[in-house]
Amino acid sequence: MLHLGFTALLALVLGAGLGAAFPQDALKKSCSLSKYQFLVPHELKAVQKMKDQFEDIMLLSDRKCNTRLFHRKWSTAELSVPDRVMLVEAELDLATTMLGLPAATPRFAETRQRPLAFLTQVREDLRGCMAMEAPSHQPSRKLRHWLQKLQAAKKTETTGCLEASAILHLFQVLNDLRCAALREQCT
C-alpha cells in the first residue's frame, strides 16, 4: 500500500517536473502556414458559392462603388514573407468584418457562415504567426501605402462598397494567403 502511494507521488512529481521542462504552450505554438499552401476543395467551393450568390444579390442592387482597394501595381510575390503575412491578415480582417455584418437575405446569411468560420480561423493563425515570428515587423513602403489606402477606404467608402470589394476579391485574398504560406518566392 505504501509502495503504491510512493509510486503515485513519484509519478506526480516527475510529471510536474517534465511539464515545467517542456511547457505545453511551447509544444502547441508553432507557426506553420503550410496547411494553407493548398486549400481544401470544399472550402473553395463554399467561398465560390458565397461569391456567386453575392453577385446575384448585387445584380439586383444599384451600388456604385469606386473603391479599387484590391487593384495594386505590385504583386504579393514582391513582398517579404512578414509583409505577405501582414497583408493577408489585413485583407482577412476586412473580409471577416464584412462577412460578419447582417446579411441582405437569410439565404446569404446561411451561405456565408462556412467561409466566415474558415477565414476567421485563418486570420487567427496568421495573427499567431505574426506574434511569434515578427512581433515588431515594420511594413515595407509598398505595404505601408496599401495599409494606409485600406484605412482611408474604411473611412470614406460605404459599408456596401467595402463588403462588395471584400467578397468579390476573396480568391485574390486566398491566393495571397497561399503566397504567404509558401515562405519562398511565389507567382
TrEMBL record:
This is IFNL3 protein. It comes from Scopus umbretta (Hammerkop). Pfam families: IL28A. The keyword Cytoplasm does not apply. Residues 1-21 form the signal peptide. Belongs to the lambda interferon family. GO terms for cellular component: extracellular space. GO terms for molecular function: cytokine activity. The keyword Protein transport does not apply. It is found in: Secreted. GO terms for biological process: cell surface receptor signaling pathway via JAK-STAT; defense response to virus; innate immune response; positive regulation of immune response. Keywords: Antiviral defense, Cytokine, Secreted, Signal.
